Amino acid sequence: FPSHDSRSSSKNITGTNGTKRYKEYLISQVLGFSGKSAMELEKKYGIKSIAELENALKQRKLDIKLTRIQQMGLQHHKDLQEKVSRVEITQIGNEISKILSREGVLVFLAGSYPSGLKKESKDIDILLVAKDSNKLLSKSRSRSQSYLEELVKKLETNIPLETITLGANKFLGLVKLSDINAKWRHLDMRLVDMGAFPYARLS
């Protein structure tokens, strides 16, 4: 499973600004790519940077096959390198809450957000709390889609949402506001019932 943060280690060059600029060109910094997959691209095709990979894909001269998540990461790379403001986190949280409140789900912004100490974050952490614990349990025991899958489908029909991984209780993906100038952001969601909520809020 590809790193959600997608900011793996790299060789450094002298100076903080120089290191930052160098990292911006590394393929291993793109969501879905690891150091190993970046090395394979260099070894097989001589591709060393994001720009070279993008050009190769546009020209279609090389038989380069990317996974769905790698395609997603490359497409939204510039957006995902930027931190998300507290204001935007609040807006996205409100949008998700508006949609899922109709399903009997409470939405709480988690991570560093509740402390109010940071004006920007790397991603958006959300805790989903199912008011009806029995509904959550009955879905998780079924062979059909989980309750979280059902909620994600509701979100997908109302806001721009991309899935990286989706389990019974955890979602990793990308989200953005519906505004034409909005940018894609990392989104982590966890689903719990009312009984587990106090403990999940502390973790």
| Number of discrete helical segments | 9
Silhouette: elongated
* Percent helix: 40-55%
Secondary-structure element string: HHHHHEHEEEHHEEEH
Which class do the helix and strand fractions yield?
alpha+beta
Strand order, largest beta sheet: 2-4-7-6-5
Instruction: List low-pLDDT spans.
Output: 1-16
Termini separation comes to 23 Å
Strand composition percent: 15-25%
* Mean pLDDT value: 84
How many β-strand runs?
A: 7
Radius of gyration, whole Å: 19 Å
Tell me about the biggest sheet?
Answer: 5 strands, mixed
Please provide a written account of the structure.
Helices cover about 40% and strands about 20% of the residues. By secondary structure, it is α+β, with helices and mostly antiparallel strands. A 5-stranded mixed sheet has the order 2-4-7-6-5. A two-stranded antiparallel ribbon has the order 1-3. A hairpin with a 3-residue loop joins strand 5 (about 160-165) and strand 6. The longest helix is centred in the middle third of the chain and has 15 residues, at about 85-100.
